[in-house]
Amino acid sequence: MKRTVLLLPDQLNLHRGALADSSPADTTVLVIDSDRYLASRPWHRQRIFLFYSALEHFLVELRSAGYQVIKIRAANMADGITQYRNQHLTAELIAGEPNSISQQYALNQYGIKLVPNDFFLTSRSDFQAWANSQKSLKMENFYRQQRVRLNLLMSGDEPVGGKWNLDHENRLPPPKGKSDYPKPRQYEFDEIDEAVWQELATREITLWGDEPDGSWATTRAGALQRLTDFIAQGLADFGAYEDAMPQNSWSVYHSLLTPYLNIGLLTPAEVISAAIEKYEQGGIPLASIEGFVRQIIGWREYINGTYWHFGTGYEKSNNLNADRKLLPLYWDESKTKMNCVGSIVGDVKARGYAHHIPRLMVLSNLALLAGVEPTEYLDWMTNTFVDAFDWVMVPNVIGMGLHADGGKMMTKPYVAGGSYISKMGQYCNGCFYDPKLRVGETACPFTTLYWDFLDRHRAEFFNNHRMRQQYFGLAKLSDLAELKLRAQQVLTGLANGTI
Ligand code: FAD
Ligand code: SF4
Fold this sequence. Notes:
This protein is α/β, with parallel strands linked by helices. The protein is about 50% helix and about 5% strand. It folds into three domains: about 5-115, 3-Layer(aba) Sandwich (Rossmann fold); about 125-180 and about 235-310, Serine Threonine Protein Phosphatase 5, Tetratricopeptide repeat (Alpha Horseshoe); about 315-495, Orthogonal Bundle (DNA Cyclobutane Dipyrimidine Photolyase, subunit A, domain 3).
């Protein structure tokens, strides 16, 4: 009797999850195309296209490896499973442990046997054991343990170069006049891509953002090309310009690998080995390789671990009682005169991507300073980014971006005024606003709202020793009353799309 693997769309890997121990002789692969899933939320066009097309390409790979693949279109996942079981009365259904809590719950309800999730370098139980042994969940401590456990960039018991974290050598602003950033490769549409795009046009679905333009590969071969490109062109300067926001490059030296890592087309282990191999050949600064390794074995694993550690309900946290509706500028960049926000929302609309600093220090910083209700912002981020999944969006938005969890993850909120964006980006010169001004018509909204935020949230943050400098600065402001009035105008203008 053949077993049936229910293939989950973010587990597209023959050597991982439920397919790892399978062979065409003993396994049938089942895919359920659920109408409810498509209709459940608005989608960035490139996000839904990537998911559907990568799945179709993977099914071709499975068929050519000899697997029988059965695809059922159904009103929802439960209906699809029932249809399959009605036709295959004795079938045993197996799936890889899902990456999201709600999906895990659903598959348990349907009585599907789950195989442990091996799409990460750290098992859920190992992370839990680490978390239970800690007073606070500091990423840096987790990362050091990962370096030792995985024996990466180690010299005996010590980190190579003597320091665990070389971030102080990174964080350079974009150099003036620089224009030779790596240009991400564009991928040609194949017949499967064409067919998927035409099929999606016939479905009941709400779409947003630009049409697929070849920015994202839909195959493992394309994902591997992107890894090769990054190792050859991006890795050396990755560290130094990790936080830079030039206006003439949306990708800077970033790897652009999350869309593939997060659906199983690439594994973190192969990404790390490619980077380490290049470093060992020479020519890669230690600060760059260390910074990149930290992102993959540290941040990515830590975020996944915290998602399962905090569990159900965390995604609804709202400890700062933020209650403002999502600002219209997130859907439409013409609803703001802020050059940084407008440009970045334009980038996101163009390809469903912005690197870490625009996500954190521009888009999320604005939502936090303006008091946008966390689930409204979380939904927008999830509907929009090509690499978005609950396990990664929820902790990044709720814990890191919006500090909505009362500091369970981060000891202080990531808030900044216009001076940070002006230093790390190249947007302010072409802006209607002035990052140095906090009051008046041309005051930078970030700068005004930053001081207003600190004042509004004295009760939460005044005694936080990591924010002493910030409150010291607030105490020295002579125009706080005027600034508070301006902040109200800014908040009204953001809500009606005139700021
Ligand atoms: P690079 O800058 O090249 O970094 C290398 C790798 O490090 C990434 O591919 C990623 O796998 C890993 N990484 C680094 N930081 C994180 C992190 N905080 N969480 C998880 N992985 C990390 N990442 C997603 O994969 N999906 C998301 O939906 C997502 N949403 C985010 C929302 C907010 C508010 C913030 C602040 C961050 C979010 N991130 C998310 C993390 C990070 O911004 C992206 O992983 C990164 O920008 C993806 O681009 P890249 O592959 O070019 O990464
Ligand atoms: Fe952004 Fe303010 Fe600079 Fe304008 S002045 S680009 S709003 S930081």
